[in-house]
């Protein structure tokens, strides 16, 4: 009787499945936190929208050099010139993506800081993540504003990952007076699970494997990025949560969970029929006016 080969088809299939999950986990971790730059390093600037801006650089606590644009409203000629808005872009985005809302708030009377998170736009590479290491960048932006306008009230406006960063930083930094968070996720585990389902992949065990690969390769865990666990610390400062009903990237239930955990001073506005970060594009003038009115009225 011939000796049985241990590498039977079921064993090979199972081994390939495990190997595939492992490779998939490493790929997923890289997509989330690995360094990636666009093939063509050109983008729009405040010149294209007719707004005077100062190019500036500043440094995060871990030494990463960051790049920004300062849109200034000096003096007392403008109502609200004693306010500064820091605008935070999304994952794999740049400050150029914010050339709608940023100049919009500038025209409404705010001084505005647009900046690139680490590894994006004109900022240097550094340890990257999904709203973990980027908190250091926003903290550095707050330090910059405090040095330039020590008496100003500071508002944060963030989109997607930038919104999650804004929520976490505002929760522990009382220099932030008001927050607008558009399309934020409630917890990193949940948004990665949603992405897996969107690609028709099994969230279990893939998300756990990506979490493990992220810890080994990039030095943080999904459990360290949970805006829903800290959003209540922003209260009673004003918080506006915005989210679209058709968001396939970060499902609407994330916004409802954040709203349920937020305290006094928070408000959730659900925008019908729009996708991820789509409220601005559905009505650009109306969106700018709504954000400015919310920030101005509180």
Note down, in words, how this protein is organized.
The protein is an alpha/beta fold and 298 residues long. It has a single domain (48-202, 225-297), classed as Rossmann fold (3-Layer(aba) Sandwich). 40% of the residues lie in helices and 17% in strands. It has ten helices and eight strands. The chain has helices spanning 9-33, 101-107, 134-148, 161-172, 188-198, 203-218, 227-230, 252-261, 279-282, 284-297, and strands at residues 54-59, 65-71, 83-88, 111-115, 153-159, 176-182, 239-244, 266-271. It has an eight-stranded mixed beta sheet with strand order 1-2-4-3-5-6-7-8, with helices on both faces. α1 (9-33) packs across α6 (203-218). The longest helix has 25 residues, at 9-33. The radius of gyration is 21 Å and the shape is globular. The N and C termini lie far apart (84 Å). The model is unreliable at 1-19 (pLDDT under 50).
């Amino acid at each position: 009787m011939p000796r049985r080969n241990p590498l039977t088809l079921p064993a090979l299939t199972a081994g390939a499945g495990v190997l595939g999950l492992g490779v998939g986990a490493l790929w997923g971790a890289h997509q989330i936190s690995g360094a990636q730059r666009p093939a063509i390093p050109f983008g729009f600037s405040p010149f294209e929208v007719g707004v005077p801006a100062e190019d500036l650089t500043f440094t995060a606590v871990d030494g990463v050099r960051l790049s920004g644009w300062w849109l200034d409203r000096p003096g007392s000629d403008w109502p609200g010139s004693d306010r500064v808005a820091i605008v935070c872009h999304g994952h794999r985005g740049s400050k150029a993506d914010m050339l709608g809302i940023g100049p919009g708030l500038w025209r409404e009377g705010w001084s505005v800081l647009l900046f690139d998170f680490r590894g994006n736009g004109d900022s240097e590479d550094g340890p990257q993540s999904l709203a973990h290491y980027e908190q250091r960048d926003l903290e550095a932006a707050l330090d910059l504003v405090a040095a330039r306008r020590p008496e100003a009230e500071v508002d944060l406006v963030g989109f997607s990952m930038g919104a999650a960063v804004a929520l976490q930083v505002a929760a522990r930094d009382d220099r932030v007076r008001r927050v607008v968070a558009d399309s934020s996720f409630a917890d990193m585990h949940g948004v990665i699970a949603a992405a897996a389902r969107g690609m028709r992949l099994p969230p279990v065990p893939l998300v756990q494997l990506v979490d493990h690969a992220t810890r080994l390769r990039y030095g943080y865990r999904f459990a360290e990025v949970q805006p829903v666990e800290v959003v209540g610390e922003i209260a009673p400062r004003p918080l506006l949560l915005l989210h679209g009903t058709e968001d396939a990237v970060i499902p609407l239930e994330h916004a409802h969970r954040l709203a349920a955990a937020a305290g006094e001073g928070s408000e959730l506005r659900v925008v019908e029929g729009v996708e991820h970060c789509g409220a601005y594009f559905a009505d650009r003038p109306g969106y700018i006016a709504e954000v400015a009115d919310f920030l101005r009225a509180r």
